[in-house]
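User: For a teaching handout, I'd like to show students what a predicted protein-ligand complex looks like in token form. I'll give you the sequence and the SMILES for zinc ion. Please answer with just the structure.
Assistant: Understood, here is the input followed by the structure.
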Amino acid sequence: MFSELILLTALCTARFTAAGLTRYGSSGCRAEVYSSCTVPNTVAITFHDGPYIFSKDLVDIFNEMDAKATFFVNGANWKCIYNDDMVDTIRYAHDAGHLIGSHGWNHFNLSEQSAETINEQMEKLEVALERIIGVTPAWMRPPNGSYNDVVREVSTRRGQSIILWDFNANDAYGATPEEIKDAYHELAEQHPSTALTINLEVKESTVYDVIPYAIDQFKSKGYELVTVSECLGGFSDYQRVTTRSEKDDSWAC
Ligand SMILES: *[C@@H]1O[C@H](CO)[C@@H](O)[C@H](O)[C@H]1NC(C)=O
Ligand SMILES: *[C@@H]1O[C@H](CO)[C@@H](O)[C@H](O)[C@H]1NC(C)=O
Ligand SMILES: [Zn+2]
């Protein structure tokens, strides 16, 4: 199956166009990589490594402040995605209109994996989101933003575009809440046309201290806080939308 990956690049465009997948962005076999929003006056605040114990509160904060978030979730990072509380949290965020994207199954460094493993990492997470919320993800954030051409090829195969960021809160790298808030303040003061920010969903101070402040800063400058699909304009949130399933014994990590 994966010998196809190293076959003719020229075939890819035709194949994926036929499959109706080019709208998610691909150049030949390699998935498009987006780092910035394009719709003026929009900001997309995104999270990775969830769901976690603060996630429902985080959703409430966005809801109360009339803002949308994008959550790139793992399958087996802190806990198994099929645990009742994880299922419940993902449904809670999705039902409130926030976007759920893929952060792969195990938070592996995808640049160091074979095509087979990358495919498996993406597919297992897709299956989980199809079961839990009835959607097939269209957006993939590789763990630590690490990707190469093989990651791009597998992403195209799976119909997903790669999405990075142009502002890192650096909460995964030890920045203090005060430092992060200063950085958000500075960013809002510079008033760029758009911003695409990355934040750690599993960090308590990010959820309760930094994010309400950041949303407020952007709102005070007149930005609309939207999902990555909206900030890029003309994209669907998901590849496919079907119906969610009831949990059974096959829901295991
Ligand atoms: C991921 O792997 C690549 C290739 O070995 C390496 O260059 C990169 O530093 C790694 N990233 C992380 C976050 O470990
Ligand atoms: C990769 O990201 C995780 C959080 O998602 C962070 O804890 C870790 O320090 C990062 N690793 C590297 C090498 O950047
Ligand atoms: Zn991560």
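For the handout, you might add this sentence: Helices lie at 9-18, 55-64, 84-95, 115-133, 149-157, 177-190, 204-220, 228-232.
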